[in-house]
Write a structure and sequence with these properties.
The complex is a heterodimer. Chain A is mainly α. Chain A has helices at residues 2-9, 15-33, 40-54, 56-61, 63-67, 74-92, 103-109, 113-134, 138-147, 151-175. Chain A starts with a helix and ends with a helix. Chain B is built from nine helices and no strands. Classes of the chains: A mainly alpha, B mainly alpha. Chains A and B meet through helix 2, helix 3, helix 5, helix 6 and helix 7 of A and helix 1, helix 2, helix 3, helix 4 and helix 5 of B.
Chain lengths: 178, 188
């Protein structure tokens, strides 16, 4: 019992232990829910639900929301679940902290919240747009798709990192001059 | 056993609860793995810290064997999707640009919100919802112009390599474990 308590209150686990746990979790998702773990479709459901509330007629006509029906279902609930899980985990290990500008950002671009939030929104737009263009994100393609030996998912994961590494280096080394 | 799981799959209310529970477990693992941190993700994209790749590859190493065994004993039937250059390559690179600017991906952004990251909430989550809305708006045009272009030659890696599934798994596992051993050897 003490050992379990020590384990759960540790600030971090070995990335190999956390990763192995995620691998087992994906297998359980296939067994119990007959689906992969993918986060970006939850954001489609959320967007669709918001649009349906604001303008039901407009949202109802959209082809994309006919293919991915906005609903409070497994994929939608995954997202608040992750928020809750990370909250519990960070509280138990004393890691929870309100942060607006992360230290790796402020070291190069300064402490201005406006600039950080502006770039974060821009990044989020590209992330959401790109995830749906590619049909999945880091979890859906990168982990769950690769686990299924999907060729498309593995190619997508390589492109995530190719684009990510290229843009991160441009941002921090060329623009930031770090 | 098969009938039991099919019954669970069809129980919609149970699946809503399971989605929440899977999310909670996933959130704990992401936070404990260190990948809900902006600093850790950016360090990965700048190639100075390999925590993200270590988490992802060990998930794939374990999950690939687990899923193959579940399939072998008839408990599950995986359904990998086919892809195209127009969808997976272009979308993947756009995603990558956003990944670097935001410093989180759709799963880790939710995790970061749970650890108190305000930039993840009012920057990341809001941005993703806008990005998805723009995509939904343009979907019919993007679909015909890009998503259907350049179909990939095979759905799975084993079909592409034209070798046996288990042999493919052995090769993939060896490559991934080898990569992690090299990372550790180099001191990352």
């Amino acid at each position: 019992m003490v050992l379990i308590l020590e384990f759960i209150t540790q600030a971090t686990w070995s990335p190999y232990v956390a990763g192995a746990g995620i691998g087992i979790l994906v297998c359980l998702a296939f067994l119990l829910s007959n689906r992969p773990i993918g986060c970006s479709s939850g954001f489609v459901k959320a967007t669709g639900l918001i649009e349906k509330t604001v303008s039901p007629a407009h949202a109802g006509k959209k082809e994309y929301f006919k293919e991915i029906v906005p609903d409070v279902d497994w994929a939608f609930m995954l997202i608040p679940g992750i928020v809750i899980g990370a909250f519990i985990s960070s509280m138990l290990s004393g890691q929870f902290q309100f942060v607006i500008v992360p230290s790796a950002w402020s070291a190069t671009f300064g402490n201005t919240p406006f600039l950080r939030i502006l770039v974060a929104v821009l990044g989020g737009v590209l992330l959401g747009f790109g995830a749906r263009w590619a049909g999945g994100c880091t979890s859906g393609h990168g982990i769950s798709g690769s686990i299924q030996l999907s060729l498309a998912s593995m190619i997508t994961a390589v492109c995530f990192f190719a684009g990510g590494i290229g843009m991160a280096m441009f941002l921090f080394y060329v623009i930031g001059g770090a | 056993m098969g009938a039991l799981f099919t019954g669970i799959h069809k129980d919609r209310r149970l699946q809503v609860v399971l989605g929440l529970l899977f999310g909670i477990a996933f959130g704990i693992l992401l936070q404990k793995g260190g990948v809900t941190s902006y600093n850790v993700i950016i360090a990965q994209l700048l190639l100075t810290n390999f925590t993200v790749m270590k988490v992802m590859l060990s998930a794939v190493i374990v999950g690939m064997i687990g899923l193959a065994l579940l399939k072998h004993f008839g408990y599950i039937q995986p359904h990998p999707a086919s892809g195209t250059i127009g969808s997976n390559v272009i979308g993947g690179i756009i995603f990558g640009f956003g990944f670097a600017l935001l410093g989180y991906c759709p799963g880790t952004v939710a995790g970061a919100v749970g650890t108190g990251a305000i930039d993840a909430l009012i920057g990341g989550v809001v941005g993703i919802l806008i990005g998805v809305a723009i995509f939904a708006e343009l979907y019919p045009q993007i679909r015909t112009r890009f998503l259907l272009k350049g179909p990939l030659p095979a759905v799975t890696v084993q079909e592409f390599l034209r070798i046996n599934t288990w042999m493919t798994i052995v090769i993939m596992e060896a490559v991934m474990i080898g990569f992690l051993l090299v990372l550790e050897y180099l001191g990352y």
